[in-house]
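== Sequence, structure tokens ==
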Amino acid sequence: MENKKIPELLAPAGSFEKAKTAFLYGADAVYCGTGSLSLRSRAEVNDDDLAKTIQYAHSIGKKVYAAINIYAWDSYYEEIKEQAQMLNDLKVDAIIASDGGVMEILKQYAPDVDIHVSTQANTVSYHSANFWYKNGATRVILGRELNKEQIKEIMTHKEPKLEVEMFVHGAICFGYSGRCFLSDFLASRSANLGDCAQSCRWAYNVYVEEHNKPGNLMPVEHDEKGTYIFSSKDLCLIKEIPEIVEMGIDSLKIEGRLKTEYYLASVVNAYRNAIDDYMKNPSTYDYTKYLTELEKTKTRGLTTFYFNDRNNKDFQEYDGKQYNPNYEFGGKVLQYDEKYSLIEIRNKLTVGDTMEVLIPGQIETRSFTIENLWDSETKQEIETVNPGKAGQTVLMKLPTKVEEGWILRRRK
């Protein structure tokens, strides 16, 4: 595999702290929002955090891509110009955009920054990919509706210098490449302006009109709660990593700017190890151990969507969200000490709980049982601790030497 290109692993960063976690667990780059101008406006990174993220990333040889990927009304363009100039000055590595008008502004106000064409632009052919390249883009992010044969076709016929990015893990949008009006229609929150209410995840009751009896509606119900007819499973292409690497894809993208640091650490670490292990020895690649790790963090069922089969229908989550009942975010290491490690807790912890240490660069976790807990201020022994406030901490003895930022998982 000496001549084979190692794809970039690209992770979401809903905050500066999440960006640090993603980098710690193996991401080569992160993407983040820009205030009200990205499609996750509720996961916005303010200007100071964005500057810190870019500075930190560059100090460790990593990259940051910022999103201005809304479909902008004319009233947004003055803000877009200001944001573009700021990002140019901050030397962000690329700006993700989907609107042709926005891209024209970026060329003028952020001339030193690469343009990545968002999945929102629905790039599903090499004709479209090459159009964007001729109009200034350095990378296109493919629509998630493509299967592997279509992706191979694009890779074969695209402009040689054009980079290609694709999603490998995370939520799949009900709308076509994310372009959906359902949220705006039902909740007056436009998905295309970054304020999606995720209406496709709601429970719905469906009724059919009885034959020859106009107005007589018969309910069609999955259970007493209704049916989640629009909610999809989460994309997971961990098994397909060998095929994706062989295609020559430049960047593998994980969805989830609203997800926790625990989710980031688990998913990024799994894909980092999968990519690296395959590059070292393709013949021994075994996806099962990575999938086992991903199963511990899933919020819904997992699917390969259309990647292997355009006729695949196994991607709807009719029961709604299926939170994993066995594991949860335990905490994050703030400071290591042989006896009194300082832990920021994220869920209730009790003496006797079984925990796992997520080790960066290693797929195997380290399990241990909490034998003692101490109050972080008084060092008095306690039996249990609850996350009563943001930043709640506790002292704990860990089974192995750890570093700041490592994540602890709690087995329920």
Observations:
- The mean pLDDT is 90.
- The longest helix spans residues 261-280.
- The radius of gyration is 23 Å.
- The chain has three domains: 8-176+232-303, 182-220, 327-411.
